[in-house]
Amino acid sequence: MIELVDVTKTYGTETTIGPVTTQIPAGGITALIGPNGAGKSTVLTMIGRLLRPDQGSITVGGHDVSATPSLTIATILSILRQENHFITRLTVRQLVGFGRFPHSRGRLTPECERHISEAIDFLDLTALEHRYLDELSGGQRQRAYVAMVLAQDTDYVLLDEPLNNLDMQHSVQMMRQLRRAADELGRTIVIVLHDINFAARYADLIIAMNEGRITEMGPPAQILTEDILSRVFHTPVRVIEGPDGPLAVYY
Amino acid sequence: MAETRTAAPGLSTTTRPPTPGDAPRRTGPFVRGRDRVRYAVVMVLLTVLAVGFTAGILAYDNPMPVGSDGFWRIAELRATSVAVILVVAFCHAFATVSFQTATSNRIITPSIMGFEALYVVVQTGAVFVFGASGVAMVTGTTQFLLQAALMVVVATMLYGWLLSGRFGNIHVMLLVGVILGGGLGSLSTFMQRLLTPSEFDILTARLFGNIGNADAAYLPYAVPIALLAGGALWWRARRLDVLALGRDAATNLGLHHQREVIVVLVLVSVLMAMTTSLVGPMTFLGFLVAMLAYQLADTYDHRLLLPMAFLLGYVVLSGAYFVLRHVFYAQGLVTVIIELVGGLTFLVVILRKGRL
């Protein structure tokens, strides 16, 4: 379980995120949604201890993320930011291999190799594993990054807009793979999403944020109402019945 | 294209054919076998060149018959230059590669942090205040160690202050480094303008990095200190590999990024203090060898990058020294040539890359 108590972060004098107090249950996919600047990514990066909150405490699986040694946290939780740019030239397999660093400190064991191969296979990168990242398309590269955090073998996986720059086909693939990671591997996945319909289709829990605070939280069926969505996104949204559940229409 | 897929997207991986040849799937610093072979070949070639240039420096144009007592005496005198070149190449290679990894930037070098400028100010200040006799005050073992300690302390304070708290940002630190370097440089230039021509002449002789004017008395201190600092970096090589992924990825993988960067920068400052105090500023040597090492080794693994950068540095320095000093009798030009080549490479890389 991820628990946030009175977490705040202030940027400059105007923008304040929080106070946020919430609990994200273990297991399944939790989607953070909201308009730009609502603080979704900020909350996610604070949970992933890449950003230190000004106040409040965050615990993941019972460990306080700011007090626990970073290496211990790295075996419990992994986080992937939106932009990833490395100065070193890496192949897919080398990148995924870095995911094992918290367990092996760089000395890869046969078990590590097994985890690496599994993560690569899981994201359908088997044929590309010896290709350099700069030779891949945006979607393939994105999958390689996700494979790295999966190879890290953590109970909690935080992803900041993993569907960014992905086309329709690859967005659907990515979400299905994440769904499988949650169902088959038992991971707890927290994900920032822009497309409400992806959240409705694949997430177990939706957290809606607005102006730095959590305004709504619940299963998709509860969040997917015209009233709530129009309020969250500041734009008129209609909800219609689709083949796989409710669909938000806002175009 | 590898992107084409017949199976339904996201289906289980059993639909995928196994990897060709069913060889055990391994993760290593090299992708193909021939990359490993190329690395080994390059290392062997560099070693051969290094041995050749060393022999050249020691024995070329030695007036005494080979093997005689006098021959060894002359070779022994020249061995000091070899030792100095070793220390300088080691320091610049290890410092620059580690620095570029810690800052996740392959353009900047430790010189940008104002090290050379600090050295120049200390030297110029001594001559400015005490006249030509001031040169004597900045030479000597105690002064050497004091100057090195001063550099490390200044650098550590600067990094510690800039990287902690609200300035916790590598770009701010680099900006301050550049401005500090420029400011100290201007201060030196100002003082140099007020010197008499003879004082200025003595000063210039000291300021241009020169393997010939390095004091052998410094070596017993410089060698172990450089070895210790370099050894510490070597010991952290696997962490450096992760550090190169940048702040967010390194933190995700369990490194305390800020602490790691400060430790690396302190070690780098020790190395830079050793080489700068020994032979003076060499702005582009580190850049040149690091750049070449990345190109030739083509791996992320610092345990392969660091030795190659060191060997490259030694070959470049000893080669230039041998050719210019023993073949053309123009040893003062060694650093000038290296700076010219290094500087040109720097410009080409920046122009081709188009950004920092």
In short:
The complex is a heterodimer of chains A (251) and B (356). By secondary structure, chain A is an alpha/beta fold.
List the secondary-structure elements of chain B in sequence, H or E.
HHHHHHHHHHHHHH
Report the mean per-residue pLDDT of chain A as an integer. Answer: 85
What structural class should be given to the helix and strand makeup of chain B? Answer: mainly alpha
Order of H and E elements of chain A: EEEHEEHEHHHHEHEHEEHHEE
* Biggest sheet statistics of chain B: none
Helix content of chain A: 25-40%
What proportion strand of chain B? under 5%
Biggest interface between protein chains, with counts per chain? A-B, 58 and 38 residues
Structural class by helix and strand composition of chain A: alpha/beta
- The number of helical segments of chain A is 10
Please state the overall shape of chain B, judged from the principal axes of the Cα atoms.
Answer: globular
Strand order of the largest sheet of chain A: 6-7-8-3-9-10
What overall geometry of chain A do the principal axes of the alpha carbons give?
globular
Strand element count of chain B: 0
**Helical segment count of chain B:** 14
Distance between the termini of chain B: 33 Å
What is the alpha-carbon Rg of chain B in Å?
23 Å
- Work out the number of β strands of chain A: 12
What is the CA-based Rg of chain A, rounded?
A: 18 Å
- Into which percentage range does the β-strand content of chain A fall? 25-35%
What does this protein look like?
The complex is a heterodimer of chains A (251) and B (356). Chain A has 10 helices and 12 strands. The model of chain A has no long low-confidence stretch (mean pLDDT 85). In chain A, the strands form 3 sheets. Chain A has a 6-stranded mixed beta sheet with strand order 6-7-8-3-9-10, with helices on both faces. In chain A, strands 2-1-4-5 form a 4-stranded antiparallel beta sheet, with helices on one face. In chain A, strands 11-12 form a two-stranded antiparallel sheet. Chain A is globular, with a radius of gyration of 18 Å. By secondary structure, chain A is of the alpha/beta class. The relative contact order of chain A is 0.16. Chain B is an all-alpha fold and 356 residues long. Helix content of chain B is 71%, strand content 0%. Chain B has 14 helices and no strands. In chain B, helix 12 crosses helix 14. The two termini of chain B are 33 Å apart. In chain B, 38% of the residues are buried. The N terminus of chain B is likely disordered. The interface between A and B is large, with 58 and 38 residues.
